[in-house]
Specification:
It contains 4 helices and 2 strands, in the order H-H-E-E-H-H. It is mainly alpha-helical and about 110 residues long. A two-stranded antiparallel sheet has the order 1-2.
């Protein structure tokens, strides 16, 4: 029963994290950026840093009909173009980061 409860908790946390920077959050909102699971660009792997060599992160709202909008953060505008060519490939990386972040989050005490 504990493993079922923990699995449900992990799934709920992953869903919460994945939607925290999706629908209902303005693309550049502080809450959306704080919930973003990666510190690096999903395309290049470069750090997402303000005032960095690429001029700071580029926030992009990925929209698909019937699904919540998702904030994607890139190191530069060029990475947006690469993302748009193969979004599924990069969304998979982002989803894996969300799951890892949820798994690492401490379980709430009851």
């Amino acid at each position: 029963m504990k493993s079922l409860r923990r699995s449900s908790l992990l799934l709920g946390t992953a869903l919460l994290l994945s939607t925290a920077f999706a629908a209902g959050q303005p693309t550049g909102s502080a809450a959306a950026k704080a919930a973003y699971p990666l510190a690096t660009c999903v395309v290049s792997g470069d750090k997402l840093e303000e005032g960095g060599p690429m001029g700071g992160p580029v926030d992009y709202l990925y929209k698909v009909n019937g699904k919540p909008d998702r904030l994607i953060r890139f190191c530069c505008k060029d990475c947006v173009k690469d993302f748009e060519q193969e979004p599924a490939k990069f969304l998979k990386k982002l989803d894996e980061a969300v799951a890892a972040k949820a798994k690492a989050a401490p379980a709430p005490k009851h």
